Amino acid sequence: MGESIALMVSYDGSGFHGFARQEGLPTVQGALESALRTVLRSEIKTIGAGRTDTGVHARAQVVSFEIDGAVPDLNSLVRSLNALCASQGIGIREARHAVPGFSARFDACSREYHYRLATGPTPPVFMSRYAWWVKRPLDLEAMQEAGSMMIGEHDFASFCVARSAEGKSTVRALEVVDVDREILLGEECVTIRVIGDAFLHSMVRVVVGSLVEVASGKHEPSWLAEALAAKTRRAAGPTAPSHGLTLWGVAYPESCWVDTV
After folding, report:
1. What domains appear along the chain, each with residue ranges and CATH number?
2. Which of 43, 179, 197, 250 is close enough to 49 for a disulfide, judged by CB 3.0 to 4.6 Å?
């Protein structure tokens, strides 16, 4: 078993067909593995903490890989990768030594996503690539009340792409569903923060689409509990656009990291 390395990666997902590699399509994983191949002069297979969809961004995606033989200086590795990846909208924030066999996906204990809504009659200019413009007024208290019904362990079959969950458990646990206002680059946004152990395909975006339905007055907050109980995709709201979603961070036990000092 080789040396395990973890990269903390940011990216603008606008120009990518998601994180996971796809033959003939630009993906974040494909770009990273190409850069690693150039720098390390060997084929590197990576594992991401989250398989973000087309158009979804990341502030701190974690990507792990193993390297055989000589281990590069991690500061030099970060500089070299950034030189190759910056023009593609990818930035490597940090590299760390991890314990042997470390997996960015399977060793994660929680993931945090932020979804931004640009509100009001004026379309966003600076946040247009990173927020869903919702022109109609939103009742944030109703949205927060509805979101609180999702905290804890539930079957989220109503809140994911149905075909992706066939034959798999759809039970997940959410620690936080929080709603707050922010001013970003001078533009008013509503940020929905969601933290959980793991997420189903498009789960956060369906949660957000459902919360917007409540905040728009189309449903009472209790409708979210009914949608959870129904366990069918038809019971929940629409899937929010991908460009408003950002993988904000991933948490791991401290035991995953190797102190090299």
Report:
1. 3-107 (3.30.70.580), 110-248 (3.30.70.660)
2. 250
